[in-house]
């Protein structure tokens, strides 16, 4: 299973909001881009999708922006995946010239593979990933 750019950018945007969580000031799109080193013209669209999915909320106006809608410990990466990706695309069988028996066998394997992947995505929260990200940022490389 490969993570799409849409999912990657969504996770990075949510990590920026996780860093800002607890602060009553919302983050604007350009601040999210700066915090995560993003240069994505579609970030606004992704944030709208995340808002529709109940993961973020937006504040209107010149001082507006985006905030997490729930606690970072309550938002799993599977929640993000389910919000930005179409699950039917992943689970529906591809049309092939295989016989019914082979199609069924392949589909069963496909479903089991995605169930395993979804299990992994379910165990990670924004809080987990944020703390991992912060640990990685504090690691310093020294060259001699």
Overall outline: globular
Q: Rg from C-alpha positions?
A: 18 Å
Query: What integer is the average pLDDT?
Result: 86
Could you tell me the strand content as a percent range?
5-15%
Give the topology string: H per helix, E per strand: HHHEEHHHH
Give the tally of β-strands: 2
Strand order of the largest sheet: 1-2
How far from one another are the termini?
39 Å
| Uncertain runs | none
* Classification by helices and strands: mainly alpha
Q: Please work out how many helical segments DSSP would assign.
A: 7
Largest sheet: 2 strands, antiparallel
The level of helicity is: 55-70%
Annotation keywords:
7 helices; 6% strand; mainly alpha; two-stranded antiparallel ribbon; 144 residues
SSE layout:
Layout: H1 5-20, H2 29-36, H3 43-52, E1 56-59, E2 65-68, H4 77-84, H5 87-91, H6 100-123, H7 126-138
Antiparallel strand pairs: 1-2
Helix pairs in contact: 1-2, 1-3, 1-4, 1-7, 4-6
Structure commentary:
Helices cover about 60% and strands about 5% of the residues. It is mainly alpha-helical and about 140 residues long. Helix 1 crosses helix 2 and helix 1 crosses helix 3 (about 45-50). The N and C termini lie far apart (about 40 Å).
Structure, briefly:
The chain has seven helices and two strands, in the order αααββαααα.
């Amino acid at each position: 299973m490969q993570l799409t750019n849409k999912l990657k950018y969504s996770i990075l945007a949510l990590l920026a909001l996780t860093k800002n969580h607890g602060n009553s000031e919302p983050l604007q799109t350009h601040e999210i881009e700066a915090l995560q080193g993003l240069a994505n013209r579609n970030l606004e669209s992704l944030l709208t999708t995340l808002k529709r999915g109940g993961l973020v909320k937006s504040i209107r106006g010149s001082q507006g922006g985006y905030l997490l809608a729930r606690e970072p410990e309550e938002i799993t990466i599977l929640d993000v995946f389910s919000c930005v990706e179409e699950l039917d695309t992943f689970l529906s069988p591809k049309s092939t010239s295989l016989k019914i028996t082979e199609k069924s066998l392949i589909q069963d394997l496909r479903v089991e593979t995605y169930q395993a992947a979804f299990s992994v995505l379910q165990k990670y929260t924004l809080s987990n990933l944020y703390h991992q990200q912060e640990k990685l940022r504090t690691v310093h490389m020294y060259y001699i």
